[in-house]
Amino acid sequence: MYDCGQKLSSIASSVTVMNANISPYRIDIPQDRLDDLHRRLAQTRWPDPVPGAGWEAGVPPDYLRDLADHWRTKYDWRAHEARLNEFPQFTTVLDGQPVHFLHVRSPRPDALPLLLTHGWPGSIVEFLKIIGPLTDPARHGGDPADAFHVVAPSLPGFGFSSPLAGSGWSTSRVARAWASLMDRLGYERYGAQGGDTGAIVSPQVGRVDPDHVVGVHVNNLIAFPSGPLADLDPADQARLDLMTRWGQDMSGYAIIQSTRPQTIAYALTDSPVGQLAWIVEKFKEWTDPAAEIPEDAVDRDLILTDVSVYWLTGTAGSAARIYYEDARSWGQTAERSPVPTGVAVFPNDVTIRPLAERDHDVVHWSEFSRGGHFAALEAPDLLVDDVRTFFRQVR
Fold this sequence. Notes:
The protein is α/β, with parallel strands linked by helices and 395 residues long. Helices cover 44% and strands 14% of the residues. The chain has helices spanning 6-16, 31-42, 61-73, 77-84, 131-135, 171-184, 198-208, 234-250, 252-259, 261-270, 272-286, 300-313, 316-326, 353-359, 375-378, 380-391, and strands spanning 23-25, 89-94, 97-104, 112-117, 148-153, 190-195, 213-219, 340-345, 361-367. The chain has a 9-stranded mixed beta sheet, sandwiched between helices. A hairpin with a 2-residue loop joins strand 2 (89-94) and strand 3. Helix 9 packs across helix 13 (316-326) and helix 10 crosses helix 11.
């Protein structure tokens, strides 16, 4: 259970649906779609392995066969669907785009609204372990004064925020839509938090809505150098080296999704094993480096729930298009955000402090020795504590 009881759901529903433009939503995947998934998994055509390559050439067939068999024979989507449905969910239309979002209000009326934005290949599944502690800290051993009302949308074209209504859905446009969503919900003061794509969108929300955003907290913040970097401390130099290695050896997915999202969409939409490999490779490369395989860092069934959201909604292609829309701005220096910003750095992040301070008003900085890219799933205790600590400065 994720500590979202009937009373809390009722409160959130009654508050949210006061706006006629917002409708309650419940996830209910048709059974024939699940049957089709199992049939396709059973009929997978498997490639030959690259001899002796291990993970260096991509996801090893032996590993993926075992994971796909678990997905087909042991994983229970209905159980995880029910868990997701414990959270109050809604849909609305923003700038012509259907948007799905969780809206979980704290039992504490004076809680600060907090807008959570996931990344790729993430989804709202990323937030399952942190929503309870954020909305009801007293129930999780925290200070009641740290409570948040959580709003967690699915990015346009991702999961249940589909179909993608036309082109042009860059992260800047998403940020403007998110500001409209918070206004529609009646929140005049709010914070924003996000990782990966969410670490691009959340600061942008602060840029477009600075009169209402009290602070921005990010993990896995990426800022590209605009020239040579000198006098970096050892930790930042290691992150710069990792950024260079990412560009040389680990960026194939980004190059494809930013240049040919339609081409890769055919394979990912037609083959569940293809979709599984495309995502689980990132759980291998981006999670805590102490983890030998992805499920050493993130529970296997949570990984499969995230993959299932992409597969069952058929949104691999539309989700990839956020890379296509943003590619023109890659490497450009962003307008400096005027909003107080907190930065959490986990292992395998490429967040370089001088670059972060160039683009953001950094008033809080934390570095952690465990966790990784999917911090909300890997180290939820550390992330929640850091979010609480930062927002105490700006409530």
